Amino acid sequence: MSVDYKSTVFLPRTDFPMKAGLAKKEPEILARWQRMDLYRRLREQSKGREKFVLHDGPPYANGHLHMGHALNKILKDVIVRAHQMLGKDANYVPGWDCHGLPIEWKIEEGYRKRGQDKDSVDPIAFRKECREFAEKWIDVQREEFKRLGVIGDWDHPYTTMAFAAEAQIARELGTFLMNGSLYRGAKPVMWSVVEKTALADAEVEYADHTSTTIWVRFPVHRTTVPALENAAVVIWTTTPWTMPGNRAIAYGDDVTYAVVRVTEVAEGSLAVPGERFAVARDLVEQVCADAGITGHEVAATVSGADLAGTVCHHPWHDRGYDFPVPLLPGDFVTTDQGTGFVHIAPGHGEDDYWLGMAHGIAVPATVDGDGTYFEHVPLFAGQHVFKVAPAVLDAMRDVGALLAHGTLVHSYPHSWRSKAPLIFRNTPQWFISMETNDLRKKALAGIDATRWVPASGRNRIRSMIESRPDWCVSRQRAWGVPMPIFVHRQSGEPLRDQTVLDRIADAFEVEGSDCWFRDDAKARFLGNDHNPEEYDQITDIVEVWFDSGATHTFVLEKRDDLKWPASLYLEGSDQHRGWFHSSLLVSCGTRGRPPYEAVLTHGFILDEKGEDKMSKSKGNVISPKDVWEDMGADILRLWVVSADYSNDLRFGRSILKQVGDSYRRLRNTLRYMLGNLHGFDAAERLPVAEMPELERWVLHRLTELDALARRCIHDFDFHTLFQELHHFCANDLSAFYFDIRKDSLYCDAPDDARRRAARTVLDLLFDHLVRWLAPFICFTADEAWLARHPGDDATVHDRLFPDVPAAWRDDVLAEKWAKVRRLRRAVTGALEQARAAKRIGASLQAHPVVYAPADVVAACEGLDLAALCITSDITLTATEPAPADAFRLEGEAEVAVVVDRADGEKCQRCWKVRPDVGSHAHPGLCDRCDAVVAALPVAAD
């Protein structure tokens, strides 16, 4: 009759549950952090330490969080927490972008639904609605960010619409005004005819668009090339609406052109037999095919350089467009498609503008802000540019200028808010010069002095700065910081008076920038120094990228708990042309260097297949709230650090399931340690020098992980750190160390040195692992810490990463145990094979015979191999040859294993099969278990 010895086994005991229940538990932990004022505690503890400041790139206050927000803010929080635990003062101040079109567009939608005209509303009342809208969403987003576990100064965030921020933005722009960098000019800018404003590059997205294409004859008026007399030059364009703005034609100096004489045409072709026209020689066949020309001959060829001095008529020269159209050399002309000639409309293209400027061609004003032609534009006055293509084609046919037309689906710029296509439009705007005061040179030097992670970011932003035009910083909208500028009516020059600028900024700081729109603003700010009748007040607002680019001036420089420059800027890779870019220019223009020491970028979120970005229209959107209400925010946090965020990240339900599996492995590792540390105290600790080799090997692994953790935190390489920690928990601990030491922890006597060593190492393991995991799974780590260290104020998050003693590192021991583990893997494989063949049940029924090389046998000398392999006995030999049918791992033929059954009976307490079972005072026990039970306060009968 067997005896139940279960009560004598030291089974794990812990209140830390296997089932996490994060969705319910995390809000309780957040409330606890709030009660203990964790943020303030960290600030008090960190006083005097080296500062690490991650400056928050402000999200926009206009809706619930999406997964991109979660990725960004979680990654920031992981970095801040990690540097805090490295012993720095890592303060994080969150912020929000509040001005600009997204909010203004939402408020206008309300007016449109009510049939009201926004322009008829008092601007101060309109701005008040915008401010209230932003305030509402800041409160919503604040709570959602906090729910993700992000710790920061949520009670004192920064916003670009705060009065002090608006004042500082005005001061920063004033600095550019005073040093001569800010000027007013008229250049083509990306323009939204729907939103009626200029857009920055970062506000533009590209999508497929179907355009009407036209091939147009420009009759040659005068030329020095005989073959071109009485011929035409043919251009090709995808923007027929720009034809009223044409003022020149560009050719390539190095391009060879052919003068084509048409001999035969297909039915319906607009070409005329006998006519002659010029196109690039390489494109003759394609143009003829597009125009339905079935027969042609090349009458002559000329080089591009020979075309200098040639002048054409505009196709509508007798219908109001009576001006010369010169041929001009352009280095942007290619023969990839089209005709090799580019029609130049200086008011509607960057290349067009600069080529026209270089040759003294005036920029015509053809298109109003709403996308309609001005009244003075012949033929098309009042028509809309996106609806005018049929009228343009008819007008070209009427004068015999249309050679062919078609359609083309191509990538085209759109507004990322309204999704409407954009145009290039020449408008009076305010620009910051890239050359005045060497802004470009300073920015390039600043880029080279900055650490970019990944390093490719340096080249990306450098190429943008090298080629970027002057910065257009004005917008024709209502919700934003007004440009603090007065222009002299007679001279057209902006007023450069520091006293006036200071007066404006001081008023903004006290009253907010709404005061600029009050009736007395001009007289008030000009004061007695200037006659208000002589000046016009600019009503444009500062573009919002300047707002966010100036945040370092009213956040980093103004707060004593931060520092300038920031240790790190971190955003998505699109911010090379956005926030990183604008911050660089503002700071280099006013302070001579970037506002950051390092810049880190992450990718975008794709669906599970890695094919599409998440979007509502594609039905593949999962919100952060969906995840934290179902699985918990720690699952999202673990997804962020488990992915290689330097590239685009895949995301979806199956990926979340995989992350959940990884999370459970980490949680169970913590739970196992907590359970086996029940009742452990300092008196039980065993000095490292007295520990078995296995425990000292585990401590060696901690030195390796500590070095890795510190390197990965410095490199912002959390993907690698997570993989190593997960591997350590799954392979080194659960599948190896825990598996081996379970018998000792459960069955050895409480004062046994081996058990004391294991419990001492478990205590050290827990202390290190829970701290390393704290920046990743902040809720779970704190829950585990509280289970180990109960107390109302206990938290892992006010701890530092442990200092790992250098003496724990033992490379010789590690090399030895690599051989031991190699042998153990072979034994484990043989046991699995024997179990599958039903020769044994549990591994403790086995007595394997192991044939191994001498160096492996030597490495195992003195070790309890049966305990290491979880068998009841084991035989190891290096002298006898292994049987041919012995088990061998693939690629590990040197170690061979034959599995026999162990001799004896099964111990009723530890389940080992031993010959001595049944020969002791306590029935059914082996000698070890008999001695342990006998020494217990209440021994089993």
Written description of the protein model:
- The chain has 941 residues and is of the alpha/beta class.
- The chain folds into 4 domains: 6-17 and 648-809, Isoleucyl-tRNA Synthetase, Domain 1; 37-181 and 433-602, Rossmann fold, CATH 3.40.50; 204-416, Valyl/Leucyl/Isoleucyl-tRNA synthetase, editing domain (Isoleucyl-tRNA Synthetase, domain 2), CATH 3.90.740; 813-903, Class I aminoacyl-tRNA synthetases (RS) (hypothetical protein PF0899 fold, 2-Layer Sandwich).
- It has 27 helices and 32 strands.
- The strands form 9 sheets. Strands 6, 7, 8, 9, 10, 11, 12, 13, 14 and 15 form a 10-stranded mixed beta sheet that branches. It has a 4-stranded parallel beta sheet with strand order 1-23-24-17.
- A hairpin with a 6-residue loop joins β31 (905-906) and β32.
- It is elongated.
- The model has no long low-confidence stretch (mean pLDDT 93).
- Its cofactor is Zn(2+).
- A motif ('HIGH' region) lies at residues 59-69.
- One of its GO terms (biological process) is isoleucyl-tRNA aminoacylation.
- It holds the Pfam family zf-FPG_IleRS.
